[in-house]
Amino acid sequence: MKHGFLIYLLFAFCLATNGQETRNILTGDYAELTDTKPVDKEAWDKQPGKPQLSWGSTDVRYSKLNVPSVNKTQRLRISGWKGERVNAQAILWTTNNLEKVSLSVSDLTNGKSVIPASVIRTNFVRYVMTDELNKDGKGGCGHRPVKADWDSSVVADVLDIIKVKDVKARSAQPIWINTWIPENTKPGVYKGTVTLTYNTSSALTLNLEVEVLNRTLPAPKNWAFHLDLWQNPYSVARYHQVPLWSKEHFDAMLPVMKTLADAGQKVITTTIMHKPWNGQTEDHFDSMIFRMKKMDGTWEFRYDVFDKWVNFMMNEVGIDKQINCYTLIPWALRFDYFDQATNRIQFIEAKPGDKAYEDYWGPFLKDFARHLKSKGWFDKTTIAMDERGLDAMQEAIKVIKNADPDFKISLAGNYHPEIEKDLYDLCLAFGHNFPADVKARRDKEGKISTVYTCCAEALPNTFTFSPPAEATWIGWHAMAGNYDGYLRWAYNSWTKEPLLDSRFRSWAAGDCYIVYPENRSSIRMEKLIEGIQDYEKINILKEEFKNKNNKSKLEKLNTLVSSFTPEGLTKAYPTQAVQQARTELNKF
To answer: Into how many domains does the chain fold?
Structure first.
């Protein structure tokens, strides 16, 4: 029995690490890919000899090799609630080589009150290769095996972890600044300075002001927004070249997953079969559960890896609301198990409705329910499906409910009234809505009703070439559409060289991941968090206005939100819509 389990784990490990011998681990500083786009040399000729530093906009991805288009300003004021994270972006450009560029931020002070520098994060923004939408401009789905067929360029997105770097002549260096306002901060305007030092002693400064409003945003763990970004632990193992589920593997995952927890993530992504998505990513997902068909035809199940992963995410990372288990209906209807009689991995091919399908899943689900109850996780767990048809879902639901009628079920896909009541967690594709009466009933029943985007949407999206404000727009859309939150299929399914090249063989660049290795966030991730925070603020204000029967303010707030619909995208570009709405939101 143990021998079979070891063979199964070895099989899984080999599959997960296949090809990693050619992988060049990138740590610390690194050389970005070359940007081949045209450069305006005349604009550089007109620049002064000294380096220039100015505040810019967080809604702009500044070109690496061209003079930035900014209204040069040395003072910036941004506003936020207590407990909110607020972003700023500065831009450095230079006609000469600069060595050992570093950043420091002072405490922000308001009389005797202080926002300490320790809550202010600074990052050099780095450049990654991207491509474009499909040629018809209608989305980013479809195979892209020949990179030369797509217009490619480097774009600003990576928020790097290095604190000192060189900046080459005739180039720009964006700088991202994030201030997480402590919840106990006294309202008022806090002032400080950002200092950029280069060539050992020379320095440039900017003035930063943060206006703290007299409202409080709760900690991310307590946000109402249901965030479900799917995690890929296998990608982390391959990138860092560490054994799956080793201490080194968990150490590498911890900061990446804590970033997700700090965004208010509610769901742990688990896999209960080999290749639930048919290996569509660079690192396919394997089963976290060992299945063995014994000599006598009965089944044995082991949950060592599943338990390890879930305990890690709950107890060390702090994500503990829900466990989604993929899947009973994979993209390829081929199911693995270790066969004791032949001492090897075998596969069953069966579709929902087949006896072989029920014979495979029925015993497992019954034992899985027993195990989950023994761990105290049953009520948190869903059996999850992704974009599966009605007939297959109906057959799978029968098998699930026959195993344990109290099992929760989730689906990301189309709305089917025939099965809606069976689904605890139902996520609809962008552009689709829940009927108002259905959503009201689901709310009363404590069910989850969310929206998702994928490669299909030209906008809004989080491709590496997407305007940053589109990520923020998503949070506003979730509120306008009366959704409980947002799902995206890939948090960290990294490409071969994710720091260098976000392009992938199947979808538009950046579709596979929104954060980078070694705890590097991105412009996209930070802007997505902005939208989630806005959702929370709107939710809090709505409750307050309802409780106080302040109909005029409630109507004004609802009107502000109402334009963030798919139809609204054709009327106002997301950047302008988001900027105006966020300004108005902070006036309530």
So the answer is: 2
